Amino acid sequence: MINYDGRRFRARGHGPDGAITTYRQDGDLLWAELSGSGVRRGSLAGRCADDGSLEFAYTMVLGDGRVVAGRCRSTPELLDDGRVVLHEEWERFPPHAASGVEALEEVTA
């Protein structure tokens, strides 16, 4: 199992000002805080499987005041330098329904 505790991720292609997600983990329990870019504040809670894949629910308050919620499944890719890329399939619930795929790349200090 990948230990995500303390790891930070940013969506690929969003540049240095993109939202940062900071993960915490205790066993298979996973949670995170996120903010930046168009996200005023967000959080997620879910589980980490033995293969490092993640399943979680999220909520966010966006910069325009919308409150959104959804779910996501992430599959990890280990890079040669030890960092992780999370390939996400996400779904946002109504009334702001949407879905998509995205890659989050681990950022280091």
Descriptive notes:
The protein is mainly beta. The protein has a single domain (8-107), classed as Avidin-like (Lipocalin, Beta Barrel), CATH 2.40.128.30. 0% of the residues lie in helices and 63% in strands. It is built from no helices and eight strands. The protein has strands at 8-11, 20-26, 29-36, 39-48, 54-62, 67-78, 84-92, 98-107. It has an eight-stranded antiparallel β-barrel with strand order 1-2-3-4-5-6-7-8. A hairpin with a 5-residue loop joins strand 7 (84-92) and strand 8 (98-107). The two termini are 23 Å apart. The relative contact order is 0.21. The mean pLDDT is 94.
CATH architecture: Beta Barrel
The helix content is under 10%
* Fold-level CATH name: Lipocalin
Report the CATH C-level class: Mainly Beta
Structure, briefly:
This protein is mainly beta and 109 residues long.
Task: List descriptors.
109 residues, mainly beta, Lipocalin, eight-stranded antiparallel barrel, 8 strands, globular
Layout of strands and helices, then pairs:
Blueprint: E1 8-11, E2 20-26, E3 29-36, E4 39-48, E5 54-62, E6 67-78, E7 84-92, E8 98-107
Antiparallel strand pairs: 1-2, 1-8, 2-3, 3-4, 4-5, 5-6, 6-7, 7-8
